[in-house]
Amino acid sequence: VINGTDLAYCLYTSGSTGKPKAVAVDHGALVDYVAWAARSYVPEAPCTMPFYTSVSFDLTLTSLFLPLLIGGSIRVYREPPSGPDLTVLDVFADDQVDMVKLTPSHLNLVAQQAPRIKRIDRLILGGEALTTETCRKAQATLRPDLALYNEYGPTEAVVGCMIHQFDPVRDTGQAVPIGKPSDGVILKLVDRGGNTVPVGVPGEVLISGRRLAQGYWQRPDLTREKFVTLPLSINTHDRDTPHSEHRFYRSGDMARLDEAGALVYLGRQDDQVKVRGVRIERAEVEAALTNLPGINECYVAVLEPRTPQQLAPVHRCPECGIGSDVPGVSFDRAGLCKVCTDFDAYRSKAQGYFKTTDDLRAQLHEARARTTSRYDCIMLLSGGKDSTYALYQLAALGPRILTLTLDNGYISDEAKQNITRVVTALGVDHRFLSTPAMDAIFVDSLDRFSNVCQGCFKTIYTLALNTALEEGIPLIVTGLSRGQLFETRLTKELFDRPNVDIDAIDATVLEARKTYHRLEDAVSRHLPVEALKLDHTFDRIKIIDFYRYHDVPLSEVYRFLAEHVPWIRPGDTGRSTNCLINDVGIYVHKRREGFHNYALPYSWDVRMGHKTREAALEELDDDIDQARVHQILDAIGYTDPEVTAPTPERALVAYCVGEPRPDVSTLRAALAEQLPDAMIPAYFVGMDALPLTANGKIDKAALPDPRGGRRHLSAAYRAPRTAAEQALARLWCQVLRIDRAGLDDNFYDLGGDSISAIRIAALARDEGLPVTAVSIFEHQTIALLAQIDQPPGDDGSDRANEEVDAFSLIDLSTEDQDALGDLLDGVGSDG
Asked: HSE of 329 in the Cβ direction (CA atoms, 13 Å)?
């Protein structure tokens, strides 16, 4: 025999605390709720409801027990094996039930699909705040006579204890009331001192009655804290109850009583946050936003400042020195990083990529035969140690050299003196190249890559290619180190095969270079790039890396410079680099990404034997002049609250759903008319829909960090739906180290680069997806990639070279390699 006090179930909930606890509910409380729900929602005849959510969610209790206990039926939906749970869309598409219980977030998702329904005529909304906008949109898109019930109740009060049916005539505010207590439920609204609040004043909701849970399973301390005994008062909103001591559950929810005697939900008590010393109710900011034209739904979160990585203990690989603060780096039990252990397995294969001085002589001989200029080649000279050493060794081979240096406005005086002394000593011609668009390029590079090097190197490559075209010079030589070659293009995936075709790698490098120079960015907007869009430009001009043909350790570079070259390590930049703005890139990268942007290339220099671990770590030990960094940031016009603020602090971020997507400046201006400055969010993220948990509530963990991947995205978030889209999104997240990738997110805006495309292509091959590195360059969103219908290995071009086809994956992978080679060509100490 089952008694009413016997335990019916334990349901785990974390509420707003994030710490799970089991709510113990007895049979009497469950029966009381179901009986009340039957009287409220199905007073005339049995109904059919869908069983589509987890039994670990109390929304399901209504869908499961209510129809079965009144002679109705349930329609069972299968849980999807993977990906986002969008079963609720199937429920409405089928339209084979009478009533559905769901969350407001679920309803927003359904209303976006706009299915017209005939059989479904009642919806029970619970679990989150319900807005009148959501209700009106649902009635407009689903059916005009759709009955919408706002049911309020925490798990501790057994699913629901208040109800309000939406009335489009009377409910004119922003929030739909949660109504009046259900049968046998007593409510109190109290202030922080426990005093009952009057009509219109916000207070915490306290719940009493025979529907309360027994407490928390095996948590007597928490039960005593949350379930308290208090006297009733005259406005308990249950006039038939005599004054006495009653057991109340402290919900932590805030509400106010309106003039009609209904409660209006105001959010969580612990939703009040302190930002810059000001106490803020997030719900108040959300209400102001949703009242603005074009905003259908929003969620305001608090963004905590990132903990400086240097304050946390950092483990460093004993071989290469890379630290645990670098994302994606893992270590074995011996403390070695996985990059080192992996490289040991394919080191011998990778050596086949490199060539000899005789091969370099052959390249120079071919250039001499093809030149129509007085120069055989261009050497890109940054003035740093690597490019200076490379220039001397190249000159010793006898070509006629034109050296080019990008004057980005921040070349140090001592670096310029080095350049002048070196080219004079060698007797080679030299030019400083510049562009008035450099500030815009810096800002774009900081936005996209959190450093300035990417922008600088694409600029010098673009200017150098145009110079070569104008003057008929057939060859450009760079000073990219071997360590940087591995950091930017030579991935493990390229060597995970019995036979490695180096010619195929070179072919794909060329394809990648073409695509790279056609990408839309600040360089393409401000510099002449028309000729770089033509294939024959890259047939006429070769770009090669000196250190592919010459293997030398750092110690020998320094010895040679000291003994044979009038080069002096610059003292006005604090390192071997030539550039004063370089510290800006380091500072921004550390501040935003949490680790040094030279950490990866330097660790590869160590693996290649070109640097000692100690020398690499010494170069990473920066003493950044923050005052000068902020002066430069101001000078180039760069603004980012996370970076330009003197110290990290908490900030508000608003995730907004609207169509069309509202302009951020417009939102700020509109909010400024309603809210004080401290309540205006620092970040606004446009989204097609807010992410949901399996239970249909806002998935706070899935909200994108505005400081990371989606900060600079122009497209609102659209979730992947098909199997191919979901698989691609998963691979993007895995490789790009982001939480989520939307259908319309641009690969490069998410932080993608050539090396990332290589890895994605390799992983896609293993899953049978027809995606190559070339196709990622050409189709830079998941939506476009998922539409590709070609066999793995076919890059979609007109090339019919069997050798390249046979090596399609590396072909596709490596092409990006050089694209990133271009991008990061000076990310090392020579940058």
From this structure: 21
